[in-house]
Task: structure prediction
Amino acid sequence: MEKHYLAFVDSIAASPTVRLDMSGGTKGPFNLRDGTRFDPPPLKRSIPSTLLADGGTPTSASYDNRTIVLVLQPMSNGAFMSPDNAAAQLQLLVRELDRPTNILRYQAGTSAPVFFRTYRSGPDSVTFTPNGRELVVTLLAEPFALGLKETLSPVTVTNNPAAGSNGMFLDIASPKGDVETPLTVAITNGTGSLGATGRLRSGLAVRRRGTPANVPFFLQAEAMTQGTDTTTQANSASFSGSGNNYSRCTFGTPSGQQRLSINPWPSGSSNDYRGTYRVFLRCRQNTASDSIDVQLQWGTSSPVISNDIVRVPGDVQIKYLDLGLIQFPAGYDPVTDGLSGVELAVQGTFLAVYVRRNSGTGTFDMDLLLFMPADDRLEFVKWPTLQAFSTDIYIAEGGARPAAYCLDTTGYIRTTETIEIAGGGLMITPGRANRVFFVRDLGTGVASAGTSDSVTATHVLTCSYYPRYLGGFRPAAS
Amino acid sequence: MSLPVPLSVRLRTSTRDVHITNEVADLVFGSTSPGGFDTCTLSLHRPLRFMPGEIAQFGRLYVYDGRTGATVWEGRLQDPGRSAGDDGETYALAAVGGQAHLSDDTRQYYMVDTDMTRWDKVDNATQASSVEQVGDVNDTGVPVMFLRIPQGTSVDGAIPSRTVAAHRGLAEAGQKMGRLSYNYDCGLTTANITHSMYAATAGVGAADIAFSTTFSTTSSATTKVIGTDWTAGRNRPIIRFHYTGAASSVSADTWWLQVSGVNLLATRYDKSGNELLTGASYTSDMVLAHQVVEDLLGRILGATVDGPNAAIFTTSYLIEQLCYPDGVTPAKVLEDLIQFEQGYTYHLWESNPNNGDKFKFEWVPWPSTVRYEADVLDGFTSPASGNTVFNKIAVRYRNRGTTHIRVSSQSVPDLTAAGFDRVAFVDLGDEASTSTNAGQVGDQYMAEHRFPINQGSLTVRTPILDTLTGRMVMPWEIRPGNLIRVRGVESYPSALNSDGRDGLTIFKIAATSYSASEAAATLDLDSFSPSVARAMAALVKRPAVRRR
Result:
């Protein structure tokens, strides 16, 4: 006969401290009775309806907290527990129920347990008569049952999208669980440090549909058509790519001219091109006092969609410049072929970089265009100015309440300059490939403070998550 | 899309910086045009026993689009209302967008002043001398100012005997002279009386003689500017005449100087906060709306609004009169400017982290091309009352101490067919008032009221096409200050060639409001939908000073 284990424990761990074991069956101290239920959480949905159209399409949905019904009978060796002992056991139980938050471990005859994070709940009813003693409680809990923490192998990520492996990304092959779950990324120094004067602003994004490896992530400037006063330059280790690996504009005509272009990009077609991307130009102006503006134009070569004009900060450091959002395909996207559900592949679009020099005499170098996926989760984390110790670990927690903080090597939280976050925390989806993008610095503060972006900097990223389950059970390995 | 709404909410104070997305309830945020980010309200359950570190007056509240990292709303906490009741212990947080900073400072404000009633006698060396204003000296509508020494007065060039008139308001407002021009005439021709324009300093400080000539019955005009004709910093404009001859007595009533058409310009700031101190910046007797906008940014709003990076489009209507001796907020000045330039609007959006977290500002023309494409499926109303249609307008204004009404008209087919007139009334007070200004305001108002103004709304729950950015955008990304084409209402081909709102299928987005609990944005079309909340907001925003 399968055995069900039920206990309040102090943590979500393989061997937690058990606060109250409720798994004894008729041997006691608690017998889990019929009526005990681990119903899945209800799904809340927003479905606008109108008489103008048949049906209604859910525009958003989220799971509500769940309720767990426990029917517990204090017993001892197959018999009712004595009144005094039963009262003592029920007191222990009520003390656990009364905690503001608690953790309920449940193993429904399976080889792996799940954990519920519960909230203070009072008993629904208590029967305490010579004929029976029973307590019924409806426990309020977070929506999902959680598995044990899954910590993935550390991955060294290089701050160069063209790096041979893990260039600004890492893959998570097939996370466990039923539903999406927040991803926590622990970042330690490789050759690069996150603490820097000017404050690094790292970008983290995720692609978790289709084949993430096919995401059009970067485009080398030297691979584009060189426009007015622009030519490729001999290899420089400061820039990404091989051979002539960057483009320089000399501004023979200083006004806004098309300096780089390509049509279309990416070539061919793929479902994986589909989506919105935030585009960054890795660039450098070579005279600090110059005033230079950059604009991304895209869509079709005529008429184009013009993103905002961006002023390049007045320094000579290599940096990423935010050129705004683009979408593949531009404009309306039916996504599927009619009502068939068959996804229509997407082609690339025209892309052009316009640059003008408002004043000055210097040149302008362009390395690559970076396309951060911006249709799922994209967050920017502003790290502290100083990293106290090179062994410090920076944590970026995902989910609905993203957070970032610093740990020392012993796991203690270190007080740092306030770490700021913009955007949404990372989530990963189980059962499919997830690609996490990590770019060391997408801001301009560090470059302005005197440090160029480095294509050789590395960081070691260790991802972890708690798999989330809808039922009160989980498979052994997923 | 059927997932949790991917918005992220952040609170930042000097002591804490946290995301509270999964703790908030009833998140609602909105924007207006003009204005930009308007208000954001949410409920946050926290114990009342101590004030949480993330809640503080004027702390920052951010709402991000978790997909793109973009800021969809940002402002400052203003009303962290605490309550305890059936819902537990709750903070009802209300934050206001950057536009609230437009009402932080009420002060006297002069840009261009043509009102001679603010000139007064300031010197008593010749006790009988006088300075008087006459509202309409020749029944031609031209007000003048007379500086006079009356007949029979003993005069002596050694004193010298004189009449001095000065403008007091500029110095009281803490502003400086940029340009002064006027017409003049004299009662006699003599080399013994000198007429002068001084650029002085309040409190009998340093002064420059910007212009000087002897009395002549030949009328003339003079224009002088900062840098060329006086030193920067002068704040007390003076018009005077004085006697230079031997001691004698005024023999006839001819010792007068008549001044008219006074145009006094204060110095202006550029948007970066640099005061414009050369004559090249003051080539006209009037000001343009965009120059005033720059001045507000550079003079008053520099601590909170990102002036240097502001987008300010140039305007063309030359404003003759714009001064607020009773005090004014930048919000009220901008409201008045839009009366002159109804094709323009302004917005304060998210802060610029590269410039001290100051709010981004733009003064832009209303676009003439459609930006958003939507339909009526999620909800649409379009009440357009005939109450908003007028074929005549009476603009009341006060200038040089006299109240005027300027009436203009236009042809409105509906009213012609109905056989009666509807007359709108606009009160310009005396702060922006000349006949020309009143005409401009009247014309702009009439153009907006030739057809019924829509006061409807559109609900958007699903992604819609944004033709400007080439993307499908979610309801919370829709920004006011743009045109939207609503499909499913009165189809006709010209709707695809529109050059502005048509009241049928193409509308101005006047305001947006997104509710996370309803996962829907409500757009106010063409004008603000009538509501109690809007009426109360309008009352709160009423200027603290009286209209004269």
User: Anything to note?
Assistant: Chain B has five domains: 7-99, 109-266, 268-365, 370-384+454-541, 390-448. Chain B has a mean pLDDT of 88.
